[in-house]
Amino acid sequence: MVPARIVRGSILGLLGEESWGLKEIPTAHYGAAFGEWVGYYHRGLLLLKLERHNEAREQLIGKASALLTTTEDSVLLRLAAAMTYICEGKLDGARRVLQAEGNVLDAYAQYLKHVLELHVAIESGNDAEEKVLLDQLRPVATMGHAFSPVIDALRNRDMARAKRLELNLLCMAA
Predict the structure, then answer these.
(1) Cβ neighbour number for residue 124 with a 10 Å cutoff
(2) How far apart are CA 169 and CA 108, in angstroms?
(3) Exposure string (b/e) for 55-93, b if CB count within 10 Å is 16 or more?
(4) What's the confidence (pLDDT) of residue 30?
(5) Residue 22 C-alpha from the chain's centroid
(6) Three-state secondary structure along the chain?
(7) Beta-carbon neighbour count of residue 112 at 10 Å?
(8) Which pTM was predicted?
(9) Is the pLDDT of residue 63 over 80?
(10) In CATH, what is the architecture of 4-173?
(11) CA-CA distance, 127 to 168, in Å (whole number)?
């Protein structure tokens, strides 16, 4: 079960109150039990939203990745790690993480992976990969779907908006 403070902090981050949300999530060590990665995960995503990349990397790649996780949890952590690289402009690092992920069983996580791959393809100028990914994302690109706004932002090359929406989608995933 996720502690209420972490849930509140994440919700505040989704509402655009990242600094306030960060204050809600304690900085203390969460332990190594299953599910303890969630605090580091949400803290790291809020730090990315605040453009505090080094601290976010420490939370998402340093601390959280060393904890016990289920297969689904580790997928989310690797997607968050890829997002860290995207936010830092390290597209090769993001591409490596996303390629290593392979097939994802959870549909939400799979579409999120495709969104991050699309982001990397667009920023890298890979038009062929962009077209393939847009075709793969067609089922969730319709109006009213949670992925629709980020796909529109990416199509319009509004990368700052796309990053914020991608971070929100990652926050909602756990």
Answers:
(1) 14
(2) 9
(3) bbbbbbbebbbebebeeebbbbbbbbbbbbbbbbeebeb
(4) 56
(5) 16
(6) CCCHHHHHHHHHHHCCCHHHHHHHCCCCCCCCCCCCHHHHHHHHHHHHHCCCHHHHHHHHHHHHHHCCCCHHHHHHHHHHHHHHHHHCCCHHHHHHHHHHHCCCCCHHHHHHHHHHHHHHHHHHCCHHHHHHHHHHHHHHCCCCCCCHHHHHHHHCCCHHHHHHHHHHHHHHHC
(7) 27
(8) 0.86
(9) no
(10) Alpha Horseshoe (1.25)
(11) 26
147 within 8 A of 111, measured Cβ to Cβ: yes
The C-alpha R_g of the chain, in whole angstroms, comes to 15
Q: Which residues contact 120 (CB under 8 A, 6 or more apart)?
A: 86, 91, 94, 95, 98
Convert the pLDDT of each residue in 103-132 to its tens digit: 777 889 999 999 999 999 999 999 999 999
User: How far apart (Å, rounded) are the C-alpha atoms in residues 34 and 71?
Assistant: 11
Separation in Å, CA 38 to CA 25, 58, 84, 86: 10, 14, 16, 21
- φ, ψ (nearest 5 deg) of residue 125: 75, 25
Rounded to whole angstroms, the Cα distance separating 9 from 126 reads: 36
Spell 145-164 as b/e; 16+ CB within 10 A means b.
Answer: eebebbbebbeeeeeeebbb
